[in-house]
Every structure is written in structure tokens, then in C-alpha cells.
TrEMBL record:
Sections of the chain in a coiled coil: none
UniProt binding sites for Zn(2+): H135, H139, H145
Top-rank taxon, per record: Bacteria
The protein, known as: Endoribonuclease YbeY
This protein's UniProt keywords: Cytoplasm, Endonuclease, Hydrolase, Metal-binding, Nuclease, Ribosome biogenesis, rRNA processing, Zinc
Cofactor(s) listed in the protein's UniProt record: Zn(2+)
Source organism (scientific name): Lachnospira intestinalis
Cofactor binding: number and manner: Binds 1 zinc ion.
Main localization, broad class: cytoplasm
Amino acid sequence: MTINIEYETDKELKLDYENIINRVINEAVDYAKCPYEAEVNVTLTDNDEIKEINAEYRNINNPTDVLSFPMLNFALPGDFDGISDELENDVEDYFNPDSGELMLGDIVVSVEKVVEQAEKYGHSQERELAFLVAHSMMHLFGYDHMEPDEAAVMESKQRQILDNLGITR
């Protein structure tokens, strides 16, 4: 498993963000029963930068807490069996040629939003960062939250990942 983390802001998180991100991503990959060695890229940035990315890719001219850029198109969320033929037929599109790992996608997190939302929701910055990364991992596995039933499934899976890690506050 390769997890690339880039810290691209002078806004400081006073916690072991690398450890949190690594633990959450590894737990999410295990939880989803991903049958491949995988790669995920994570960028920690500030509100100004994530606002630019949000405007460019989603036409929303506001900062957001996290953005997800999945590399896979699941017919059913988290169903690796359902995409195995596609992966086997288009290896060069989905697997890193250097490592052979499945490229799940990219995550961009606003450090400022981690701090703001932890305070707003009354929990630790560790929990907020872990939640945002777990949320984004669910998007990388094809889950969404546009409909209430989808949101409930996604929320349940995110919560289970954090509970498995003992990150509850």
C-alpha cells in the first residue's frame, strides 16, 4: 500500500496527521475488502487552494472541507468483482506501472476546515481529519450521498471505520 501525503500550506495542524491519514486509509481499504495492493494520494492544503480546485472541478466558488477524485468507476459502490474485467483489460489505466498498485484516486483536505469544523462540532481535530479522510475514501470506492439512503449507507461505513480505529472524539 502506498499513501502519498503532500502538505502544501503554511497553516499548521498540531497533530500527527500522517499517522492518522495512514491508519484511516489502511482501515478503509481493509474494510472495503479491496483485493489489490493500492495507492492513494492525499494533499493537505488551505481554504484558498481548495476553493480554486472546487471552482475548477465542481463549478462551486467556495472552499470545501474535502474533495475526492476517484480513479475507478464502480457500477455498485465497493464492488471490486464488478469492475475486475475492466481492470484486467485496461491495466495501464488503473495500475501504477512502477509499483503495480491499483490507483484508487486523490484526496484533497483543507487544513483550515479541519480546525474550523472540529471546533464547530465539538470534537478533536484528529477525529475531524479522520472523518474527512474516511468520507473521501468512501467516494474513492464509489459511494455517494446525494440521496438520503445513500447518505445513510456512507455515514454508517465512515463511522465503522472510525470506530474500528477507536477514533470517536
